[in-house]
Amino acid sequence: MQVVGYDVGVTDGEPALVLAADGDLLREPLVAGGELAYTLGERRCAGTVADGEHLPCDEARAPYCEGHSRTWVCARCTGVCLKDEMDCFEEHAVYLAAFAPASFKVGVTRAWRLDTRLREQGADRAAHLHTVSNGRIAREIESEIADGIGDSVRVPTKVRGLAESVDDDAWAALLDEHAPIETFDFEYDHGLEERPVGETIASGTVRGTKGRVLVLERGGTTYAVDMRDLVGYEVSEGSVDRPLQSSLGAFG
Q1: Cα–Cα distance, 135 to 142 (Å, whole number)
Q2: Does residue 2 contact residue 27 with C-beta atoms inside 8 Å?
Q3: Do residues 19 and 1 make contact, with C-beta atoms less than 8 angstroms apart?
Q4: Alpha-carbon distance 81 to 21, whole Å?
Q5: Over the Cα atoms of the chain, what is R_g?
Q6: Nearest to 231 by CA among 95, 107, 49, 87
Q7: What number of other Cβ atoms are within 10 A of residue 236's Cβ?
Q8: Of 66-75, 79-88, 107-116, 233-242, which range is least confident?
Q9: 87 Cβ contact partners less than 8 Å away, ≥ 6 residues apart
């Protein structure tokens, strides 16, 4: 079997890893309290999924080879369309997202996907700033705001804040600058008392997910796994012990 994707579970169903075996797709649910027990093997290109079937690839580059890499050109847009013809003629939302304790970013999404997009990223707090008629205008506004706070927060930064709360004063000060239309407050019940250890594993008791971050407990230590880092790995059922970094709490 090979890990060929993941579902963060914000639209339909529960979060899950997507596995492929002989072309068939399988879902491994990531429900809090459930057990995950896979050993990671070699890693290679995850291929592609078409019409519910997995098409494998033998290229060594992971998670995707050059032929299977997908670059979304709109993510690089700052108001000047990079496509042959502009096609984003629907309402877009400009938003701020906060990640504990004090990492902030501005972003753009189609207006009807706003709540979904925030949950996909694992935001702790968010604010809807503007709704505009098309993506070009939204990207122009985003580019202006990004000069001050940035337009991305990397997964390791999100992991470092998993056991913390958002800095209320810093968030309030940012909102005062932008007068949002509405705000959001998301809850993630992982029960964490200390920062999880970053690892790439697929075994342990599931504590929960936050965006594409999977929190597992194993041997008295909690681990945070970027699910994208699992994509491409061959896996076998059953957990094989290997040395892992432990938190100090594991020895208490």
Answers
A1: 10
A2: no
A3: yes
A4: 40
A5: 20
A6: 49
A7: 12
A8: 79-88
A9: none
The tens digit of pLDDT for each residue in 25-74 reads: 999 999 999 999 999 999 999 999 888 899 999 999 999 999 998 765 55
Looking at the DSSP bridge assignments, the partners of residue 37 are 203
The Cα–Cα gap between 216 and 124 comes to: 19
Residue type for 230, please?
Answer: L
Q: Residue 82 — pLDDT band, cuts 50, 70, 90?
A: low
Please give the full DSSP string across 76-89, using - where no structure is assigned: G-SSS--SSS----
Task: Give the whole-angstrom CA distance, residue 123 versus residue 186.
Answer: 7
The edge-to-edge listing of strands for the beta sheet with 16-21 is 24-29, 16-21, 2-7, 233-237, 35-43, 202-210, 213-218, 221-226, 197-198
Q: Residue ranges of the alpha helices (H) in the chain? A: 114-121, 135-149, 155-160, 168-176
Phi and psi, residue 87, nearest 5°? -135, 15
pTM for this entry: 0.88
Residue 221 CB-density burial (10 A; 0-12 exposed, 13-18 middle, 19+ buried): buried
How many Å apart are CA 160 and CA 163, to the nearest integer? 8
Which stretch of DSSP H or E encloses residue 183?
strand 182-185
Mean per-residue pLDDT for 199-228? 96
